[in-house]
Amino acid sequence: QQSKKHPIPLTDINMTRCMLILLSVAISALITQPCTAFVPTTSISQKLVIPKTTAFVNNVLTLSARKQKEDLSYIESRDMTREEMLELNKKNEEIMNMELSMMTGFSLVISLPILYLCWVAFFSD
After folding, report:
1. Euclidean distance between CA atoms 108 and 115, whole angstroms
2. CA-CA distance, 20 to 24, in Å (whole number)?
3. Per-residue model confidence as pLDDT tens digits over 48-92
4. Per-residue b/e over 39-64, b at no fewer than 16 CB within 10 Å?
5. 5-23: per-residue pLDDT in tens?
6. What's the 3-state SS for 76-109?
7. Cα–Cα nearest to 96, from 107, 84, 109, 88
8. Could you point out which of 12, 18, 45, 53 has its C-alpha 20 to 30 Å from the C-alpha of 64?
9. What is the pTM of this model?
């Protein structure tokens, strides 16, 4: 008779991996909050009881926290002229081009180790 071989041999390494996976699932199940997506909101609101004194204190704090309206009449506003708009656009375009070149350079520097590993993997003897 031919004995059937298990497709994945149960070695110590595979058992350790399985135990680590089960342990991580158990820990994540204990840490995460239960889902309340399917609980009707009426049942939650019925359980929520706010004492009257707390509501009164919250109202008093809200009323005392309101700020006076600030007088902004000293600010002068006007439309920009065409030349000012063109100058601002030119300055913004220079800044955006500089940011784009810096982001490109940064991404190339970050990807150098990956490119080196690909070079070694494909062209080494």
Report:
1. 9
2. 6
3. 555 555 555 566 556 556 667 888 888 888 888 999 999 999 999
4. eeeeeeeeeeeeeeeeeeeeeeeeee
5. 555 555 666 667 777 787 7
6. CCCCCCHHHHHHHHHHHHHHHHHHHHHHHHHHHH
7. 88
8. 45
9. 0.35
